[in-house]
Design goal:
By secondary structure, this protein is of the alpha+beta class. Helix content is about 30%, strand content about 30%. The strands form four sheets. It has a four-stranded mixed beta sheet, covered by helices on one side.
């Protein structure tokens, strides 16, 4: 059973991203084993999804986080319990006395990801470029004035890609802070310069240190973009390992 394998080593100088493509997980026996991992509250929540697609993605997400956490601690995947803060960010509630694991989840059409690290703020977001809906048209509502201006200065053919670059990065930051959209989105900006690391800039009212943050972006598939944000603690950039998995599979 994947969740009961010899625990993996996770040092404070690295974070791991686990990703699963839910459309590749269709074996009935495997899905039944995912159901067995969930607690009663999760089973109720799964049934609240109106469509089968949502129920399937929720099931795979719960299996992913439970088996991934059990990679780093000798805990049965069924034993994990979770709580949420006032802004809805999940955290480990039990068992206690384990390594200071932190995790964050994100999902979009066709991909689910789980970021794991030790004793630090971290956040992850993944988006599907092919999703429908407005993009550039809503920049003024969700981006800083600098980001909106820079976005519209791009060639028209590049604006949609730049929109998702900003979007995933901003989501990774607010998720790492654990405060959701209560953070003023216009008071922090991402600086994207070719050939240079992604940087963040803060309005003084944010009272945050841009040098303490590391951001990375990845393309896990041709239609997906993923952003990872982690807070450093007087240390160099953290190593980020990306691992593809099928929970309880391989």
């Amino acid at each position: 059973m994947e969740g009961r394998q010899q625990p993996l080593t996770l040092t404070k100088s690295e974070t791991h991203v686990w990703m699963v493509f839910p459309d590749a997980v269709r074996d009935p026996a495997l899905l039944a084993s995912y159901h067995a991992l969930m607690c009663a509250e999760e089973r109720v929540q799964q049934q609240r999804f109106r469509f089968e697609k949502g129920r399937h993605e929720y099931l795979v997400t719960r299996a992913l986080v439970r088996t991934v956490l059990s990679r780093y601690a000798d805990v049965d995947p069924r034993a994990w319990r979770f709580s949420k803060n006032d802004y809805g960010r999940p955290a480990i509630a039990a068992p206690l006395g384990l390594p200071p694991l932190q995790f964050n989840l994100s999902h979009t059409d066709g991909l689910i990801v789980c970021l794991v690290g030790l004793d630090r703020e971290l956040g992850i977001d993944v988006e599907n470029f092919e999703r429908s809906g407005e993009t550039v048209q809503i920049a003024d509502r969700f981006f800083s004035p600098l980001e909106a201006k820079t976005l519209r200065a791009q060639p028209v053919a590049s604006q949609r890609d730049r929109f998702f670059e900003y979007w995933t990065l901003k989501e990774s930051y607010i998720k790492a802070r654990g405060m959701g959209v209560s953070l003023p989105l216009e008071q922090f900006s991402f600086l994207l310069n070719p050939g240079q690391p992604v940087r963040i800039a803060f309005d003084p009212r944010m009272q945050d240190d841009p040098e303490s943050w590391q951001f990375n972006q990845f393309r896990p598939s041709p239609q997906h973009l993923m952003a990872v944000g982690v807070r450093r603690k007087d240390e160099p950039d953290l190593a980020i390992q990306i691992k593809r998995t099928i929970p309880l599979g391989f």
